[in-house]
Amino acid sequence: MFERATGKPFAGDGGELMDGGDTQATGWRHEVIEDGPWAGWFAYGNDPFEDHAGPFYYRVGDDGRRVCAMRAEAKHMNGGGFMHGGAIMTFADYCLFVIAKDALTDSRSVTATFNGEFVGAVAPGSLVECTGEVVKAGRRMVFVRGLMTTGGEPVMSFSAVLKKTSARAG
């Protein structure tokens, strides 16, 4: 179902990456968690940075909308003892693609714009959840908005535009 993505070689140079790094296979995964506290949730993606920053999960709610979730761990905290804004934004970016999954079928895409308002704090150990909607899905752009909460209280409201892209030739 998901296209296999690899590092992009610099054209004509024998396969080295433009940044000098190694080619990295990052095939997408979509799997149901079988056991533990996240049993019944899905693991989605395989973005190396999100894998490092997460783990992030999603499920389909009773209303048919996707619900994303994560547990705030010590590695997500800032110096003040609450979840770091960068960790919140990283989770929100993950959520964008889960929320817009149906609108992005058979295409690659990137975050073109992201606007967010931090409206609450997340304490260590808290369950953080996010829901949202596709406002409009166009031919090349998908407009998404979401709300992240913890304990039923808002943490961040955000909106973004995802740009559909196509694989570059050779």
If you had to describe this structure to a student in words, what would you say it looks like?
The chain has 170 residues and is mainly beta. It has helices at residues 48-53, 85-99, and strands at residues 29-32, 42-45, 57-60, 66-71, 108-118, 127-137, 141-150, 153-165. The protein has a 6-stranded antiparallel beta sheet, covered by helices on one side. Strands 1-2 form a two-stranded antiparallel ribbon. It starts with 28 loop residues before the first strand and ends in a 5-residue tail after the last strand.
Task: Give the overall form.
Answer: globular
Query: The biggest beta sheet, please?
Result: 6 strands, antiparallel
Strand order of the largest sheet: 3-4-6-7-8-5
Number of strands: 8
Q: Beta fraction of the residues?
A: 35-45%
Q: How many angstroms does the end-to-end distance come to?
A: 22 Å
What is the quaternary state of this protein? single chain
Order of helices and strands: EEHEEHEEEE
User: What Rg do the Cα atoms give?
Assistant: 17 Å
Derived from helix and strand composition plus strand pairing, the structural class reads: mainly beta
The average pLDDT value, as a whole number, equals: 83
The helix count comes to: 2
Instruction: Give unreliable regions as ranges.
Output: 1-27
Helicity range: 10-25%
Compact overview of the structure:
The protein has two helices and eight strands; from the N terminus they run E-E-H-E-E-H-E-E-E-E. It is mainly β.
Features:
single chain; 170 residues; mainly beta; 6-stranded antiparallel sheet; two-stranded antiparallel sheet; 2 helices; 37% strand; globular
